[in-house]
Amino acid sequence: MSVVQQPRWLRFYYYVRAAFSIAWVAAAVLAAGHPSLAALLLVIYPAWDAAANFVDARASGGLTANRSQALNVGASSVMTMIVIMAVMRDTYTVLAAFGVWAVLSGLLQLFTGLRRWRSQSGQWAMILSGAQSVLAGGHMIHKSAGVIPPSIVDVAPYAAFGAFYFLVSALWLTVAAVRSSRTAV
C-alpha cells in the first residue's frame, strides 16, 4: 500500500473497529441474562481482534514490518482458545483471562501507536487507548478475585472505551484528510 493510501486505510480500519466494538457492547448488554449468547460474544471479541490486527498488519506492510501487531495476532488467537476453555469453567476465570489479554494487547497497541506516531495522524488516541487497556486489564484481574460473580457486562466498558478511541482516531484522520485536501487546492 502506498504512503498516500495508508491514511485512507487507517481511517477506514478505525471506523470499522469502532463500529464493531459499539455493536459488540450493545450485544453484550442484551446478552447479560443469556449465558450461551454471552459466552459466544466473549469468544468472538478476541477472535475479531486477532483478525483485525492481521488485516491491518498485512495492509500496513506485512506482519514482519509490524511486529507488535503480529504479536497481537498471536496473543489474541491464543486468548480466543483460552476464553473458549474459560467460559466452560466460570465467569471469574473469563474475567481474569480478559484482564491478562487487555494488559498484553494494550501494551502491543501502545507500541503500534508509537511506531506509527511519526507517519500517521491520530495516533495519540491509540497510545492512550493502549495505556488505558493496560489499566482496565489490571482492574479486571483484580475484580476477578472478588466475591461478586462477574458477567459480560464487566467486559463491556473495556470494549466501549476501545470503540471511543478508534472513533476518535478515525475522526482525527478524517479531519486531517479534509484539511489536507483544502490546502492542496
Describe the structure concisely for a colleague.
This protein has 6 helices and no strands. With 185 residues, the protein is mostly helical.
How would you describe this protein?
This protein is an all-alpha fold. The chain has one domain. 81% of the residues lie in helices and 0% in strands. It is built from six helices and no strands. It has helices spanning 5-31, 35-59, 67-87, 91-116, 123-144, 156-184. Helix 2 (35-59) runs antiparallel to helix 3, helix 4 runs antiparallel to helix 5 (123-144) and helix 5 runs antiparallel to helix 6 (156-184). The longest helix is centred in the C-terminal third of the chain and has 29 residues, at 156-184. It is elongated, with a radius of gyration of 17 Å. The two termini are 24 Å apart.
Lay out the secondary structure.
Layout: H1 5-31, H2 35-59, H3 67-87, H4 91-116, H5 123-144, H6 156-184
Helix pairs in contact: 1-2, 1-6, 2-3, 3-4, 4-5, 5-6
